[in-house]
Amino acid sequence: MLTAFARTPPLQLAEVLCLLCEKTRWPHLIGTAALAVQVVGSNWPKPHYTLLVTGLCRFQIVQVLKEKPYPVAQVEQLDRLEEFPGALQTREELGELSEQFYKYAVQLVEMLDMSVPAVAKLRRLLDSLPREALPDILTSIIRTSNKEKLQILDAVSLEDRFKATIPLLVRQIEGLKLLQKTRKHKQDDEKRVSVLGARVFRGPVFLGPEVPWGGQLGFSVLMEFFILEHVCYVFFLHRLKKMPQSMPEYALTRNYLELMVELPWNKSTTDRLDIRAARVLLDNDHYAMEKLKKRVLEYLAVRQLKNNLKGPILCFVGPPGVGKTSVGRSVAKTLGREFHRIALGGVCDQSDIRGHRRTYVGSMPGRIINGLKTVGVNNPVFLLDEVDKLGKSLQGDPAAALLEVLDPEQNHNFTDHYLNVAFDLSQVLFIATANTTATIPAALLDRMEIIQVPGYTQEEKIEIAHRHLIPKQLDQHGLTPQQLQIPPATTLGIITRYTREAGVRSLDRKLGAICRAVAVKVAEGQHREAKLERADATEAEGGREHSEDTEPQPIGDSGAAGLALPPEMPILIDLHALKDILGPPMYEMEVSERLSQPGVAIGLAWTPLGGEIMFVEASRMDGEGQLTLTGQLGDVMKESAHLAISWLRSNAKKYHLTNGGEIMFVEASRMDGEGQLTLTGQLGDVMKESAHLAISWLRSNAKKYHLTNASGSFDLLDNTDIHLHFPAGAVTKDGPSAGVTIVTCLASLFSGRLVRSDVAMTGEITLRGLVLPVGGIKDKVLAAHRAGLKRVILPQRNEKDLEEIPGNVRRDLSFVTASCLDEVLNAAFDGGFSAKARPGLLNSKL
Ligand SMILES: Nc1ncnc2c1ncn2[C@@H]1O[C@H](COP(=O)(O)OP(=O)(O)OP(=O)(O)O)[C@@H](O)[C@H]1O
User: Fold this and answer.
1) Which position among 389, 733, 778, 780 bears the catalytic label?
2) Is 149 a catalytic residue?
């Protein structure tokens, strides 16, 4: 019944035969006739045969004659390919279709890498085969579903065949185009195309609706995979499909694939770059911080002018609670970007940044990739909080991993160990914050632009409290300004007596405590009001109700109002109410009290927490002894013991203390008149050296200033030990800026004169008595102002830094700029310190 045979490629026929036999069981009446050429296989270990057939032609079943033991049917041959070449030439439309088809086929093949042998062979095949055979051949090679294949088989007329196959070719071409677009940046472009090319034609899973994802991955998602050239990771889909769900690896693979799908590979928000609006928003959100806001606006302006700015990473450095994090949040808000904060404090494992390799049990991606997953876009603002507190451990250096993240030249190719695929971080805007630059690794510091954010003055704090903190706290506690009022005088009271900070975080907390206390009163008041109303109503009805609750109760200790009546609104917090709520003041200014003895001076220190005033105390003792301490003591405790001994020794005569007691003084031989200098207060090396410098300078200038030791000798250390102490003893201190304070303190000790109680100072000294400039002037001056001091002695070369000081602080303080120690001492003592100017010597013996 088969009258004309045409040779069709065996591959296609084998597929169609299989389809017909296995899947369809005759629901399809059109099939392919084929000649079995070879049968290879065996029955062991289980039957496995490969059938090689040569295709002949399409046929249609007319009637099934019998089904067993094998189906026999009467069929009719459908295609007569020998007629087709003629038809192609005579019918214009068919000729055009065939030409179009050929062009698409060539285009598709040319998009592949011709260096792959299979592709080159295909190209040759395309030219050598008759045009009418191409639709069947290409359908069997390109990615098509079984359903689509059967549709082509059904297309008997050549015209239908071309028409049905062209869309399949176009779909494949578009897929490849998208793929190539995304990979054009990559260096290893060609290699990957070849791998991909081979897969497009022969690989198991590509574009197409029938993806083996158990219905959970849609076509578009797989498409995204595809175009993002992570084609090889589709491999995991196969693995997942084959794995039993109980296998631990199933969850791992699934999590991994879910992360791949959830990551915002090419999803971003559109930047809103309106500098005027940004300025208004920054001003509305933050009071003061002019320098920081100015720099942030400059940065945003440059971004507006130049897209894809590979700009510096901004790093805000300043004490805690000065608003660094919240400015970062405002930047995201002005740009209309997502905001994500990554806390780096205490991170000491580089896999925190870069993720674990998937071979680890419990492996996870790093914080960067996790953050991207959380925000769901690839251009968020990432705030790297506390970069100065990164640790180091055996698990690697997280700072080194951050280098890659922050380097605009490298971060378009950031590879997380877990993901193992490069992710482009170049669209992410990184802002870092730190309390100090001292502990930021140098390489990291080099990649960032540091913007100092100094602490606030008292006036600024009051403004911030009233503009931002109080409204925020009221809102958080469900209160209104009609219920609670905090006058500026009370805010100042909180700032000076209950907080000691450069920022406003404690102030915020104290305001929160006030709101909580008032919330209780307001809630109780409402409760009572309701009860009173009910009581009134009952009374009106003639009934009388007695309840313990209606007994009058005082509000707090202040007894401001009884609880029988609701408190009068608004509740005004004065200084008395403040004491009731927050307890007795935590900080009192004890400056003048502590300066009531010679040998004490106030220095100005800069710490990561802001500026602070620092007392330097000195005492001297006759003779030399040794103190043995046992009992596994820590450094601070040992220093305390030294302090105690020093105090007792210098007060021994006053209290009639002798050396026959419990403490063991072992007399040591005197070293040629050299005294001993004891330094306590957890000092760093630089500070210890400053103390030695100060002593040396004073010894060499002892005659000039009439400085003597306890026995009246100008050799200050002769038979004399000196103890210098820097409270608070448990806080580590270092740096050269205490030099002038140490000199002043010792000058006071050896002269027996009191240092002015309203003066603080800072400056490095040299052996020749020069005063060198130091850093952190603004914070230090603000600390002196906070402490209520009146005069600040600064190195002359720091005069320029005074410009940064707010006008009101400058007005309250008098500044003395000194270039040498002579000037420092003259300004630190009443009536100056020069030898001539000094009145009769005070007896300096203690
Ligand atoms: N100038 C300001 N104007 C308004 N609010 C401010 C200002 N400065 C700080 N705040 C508020 O103070 C609080 C603490 O600020 P934030 O958390 O940003 O401090 P930080 O400098 O990042 O501190 P840390 O270094 O501890 O992270 C926030 O509620 C913030 O809104």
Assistant:
1) 780
2) no
Question: Which residue lies with its CA nearest to atom 26 of ligand 1?
Answer: 320
* pLDDT band for position 468 (cuts 50, 70, 90): very high
Local structure of 818: helix, strand or coil: strand
Amino acid in position 449: E
Q: What are the backbone angles phi and psi of residue 604, rounded to the nearest 5°?
A: -120, 130
Ligand 1 lined by 504 (C-beta under 6 Å): yes
Question: Ligand 1 centre from 321 Cα, in Å?
Answer: 4
- Which position has the higher pLDDT, 272 or 164? 164
d(CA 572, CA 428): 47
Give the CATH number of domain 275-452; options: 3.40.50.800, 3.20.20.150, 3.40.50.880, 3.40.50.300. 3.40.50.300
Q: Could you read off the pLDDT of 141-183 as tens digits, one per residue?
A: 777 788 888 888 888 888 888 888 999 888 888 888 887 776 6
Q: pLDDT per residue over 457-466, tens digit each?
A: 888 899 999 9
Catalytic residue among 690, 737, 751, 844: 737
**CATH architecture assigned to 459-582:** Orthogonal Bundle (1.10)
- Kindly report the protein residue whose alpha carbon is nearest to atom 18 of ligand 1: 323
Is 819 in the active site? no
Placement of tokens 């049917």 in the chain: 73
Q: Do domains 275-452 and 591-828 have the same CATH topology?
A: no
As a whole number of angstroms, the distance between CA 206 and CA 64 comes to: 38
Predicted TM-score of the model (pTM):
0.58
Distance 253 CA to ligand 1 centre (A): 42
Amino acid, single-letter form, for residue 805: I
Kindly report the CA angle at 108 between 31 and 100, in degrees rounded to 5? 70
Residues in the chain: 846
The pair of structure tokens assigned to 343 is 């806390």
User: Rounded CA gap, 708 and 716, in Å?
Assistant: 6
Establish whether residue 384 lines the binding site of ligand 1, counting it when its CB lies within 6 angstroms of any ligand atom.
no
Query: Is the reported ipTM for this assembly greater than 0.85?
Result: yes
Instruction: Report the separation in Å between the CA atom of 100 and the middle of ligand 1, taken as the mean of its atom positions.
Output: 67
636 labelled ligand-binding? no
Pocket test for ligand 1, best of 384, 460, 468 (most atoms within 8 A of CB): 468
Query: What is residue 625's three-state secondary structure?
Result: strand
Strands (E), 110-195: none
With vertex at residue 125, the alpha carbon angle to CA 119 and CA 127, rounded to the nearest 5 degrees, is 115
Which residues have a Cβ under 8 Å from the Cβ of 316 and sit 6 or more positions away? 292, 324, 327, 328, 431, 432, 433, 434, 451, 453
- Residue whose CA lies nearest to ligand 1 atom number 7: 323
Hey, which CATH number is domain 591-828, 3.30.460.80, 3.30.420.310, 3.30.200.20, 3.30.230.10? Answer: 3.30.230.10
pLDDT band at residue 340 using 50, 70 and 90 as cut-offs: very high
How close is the Cα of 477 to the center of ligand 1, in Å? 19
Verify whether ligand 1 is closer than 6 Å to residue 109 (CB atom): no
Centroid of ligand 1 to alpha carbon of 791 (angstroms): 30
pLDDT over 90 (residue 89): no
Q: Mutate which of 283, 325, 330 to test ligand 1's pocket (most atoms within 8 Å of Cβ)?
A: 325
DSSP 490: H
Q: How many angstroms does the Cα of residue 327 sit away from the middle of ligand 1?
A: 8
Q: Is the CB of 288 under 6 A from ligand 1?
A: yes
How many Å apart are CA 816 and CA 364, to the nearest integer? 58
- Binding site membership of 287 for ligand 1 (Cβ less than 6 Å): yes
pLDDT at 499: 85
Domain map of the chain by residue range?
Answer: 1-79, 89-202, 204-262, 275-452, 459-582, 591-828
- In degrees and rounded to multiples of 5, residue 339 shows phi and psi of -120, 135
Q: From 770, 517, 737, 479, select the one nearest 612 (Cα to Cα).
A: 737
Q: How many CB atoms lie within 10 A of CB 819?
A: 15
Residue 161 contacts residue 155 (beta carbons within 8 Å): yes
